[in-house]
């Protein structure tokens, strides 16, 4: 991501994180033969999107939005933790296997794009 405009870079990083969470939820709904409607995806995604925003606040991600560590790590952990807590609070599934799959998938997505950005920035 371009370093010349910090506001644009921050907005793009936040958008990338939110898109990653939506992709995760869409893949999950599809793999479980649930409907791929906007409402269905939103219902699945809102706990994790809330977690992502909480992660951004906890990490102060706007300061170093593309940083793998600590920003990406904090955003990822808080996304999963808050997402699971909200799912539990609303009687949605939080089976141990789901927690593992969600943790791995969101790590690949939320940390992966940052790792790619880091490699590209070094070029």
TrEMBL record:
Signal peptide start and end residues: none
Pfam families: DUF3054
Keywords: Membrane, Transmembrane, Transmembrane helix
Segments passing through the bilayer: 12-29, 35-56, 68-86, 98-121
InterPro entries: DUF3054
Keyword Transmembrane helix: yes
Protein name: DUF3054 domain-containing protein
Biological source species: Mycolicibacterium diernhoferi
Record lineage: Bacteria, Bacillati, Actinomycetota, Actinomycetes, Mycobacteriales
């Amino acid at each position: 991501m371009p370093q010349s405009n910090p506001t644009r870079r921050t907005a793009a990083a936040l958008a990338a994180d939110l898109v990653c969470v939506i992709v995760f939820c869409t893949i999950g709904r599809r793999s479980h033969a649930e409907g791929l409607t906007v409402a269905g995806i939103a219902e699945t995604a809102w706990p994790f999107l809330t977690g992502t925003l909480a992660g951004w606040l906890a990490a102060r991600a706007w300061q170093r939005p593309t940083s793998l560590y600590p920003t990406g790590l904090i955003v990822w952990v808080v996304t999963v933790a808050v997402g699971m807590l909200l799912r539990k609070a609303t009687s949605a599934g939080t089976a141990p296997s789901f927690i593992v799959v969600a943790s791995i998938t969101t790590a690949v997505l939320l940390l992966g794009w940052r790792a790619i950005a880091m490699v590209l920035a070094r070029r």
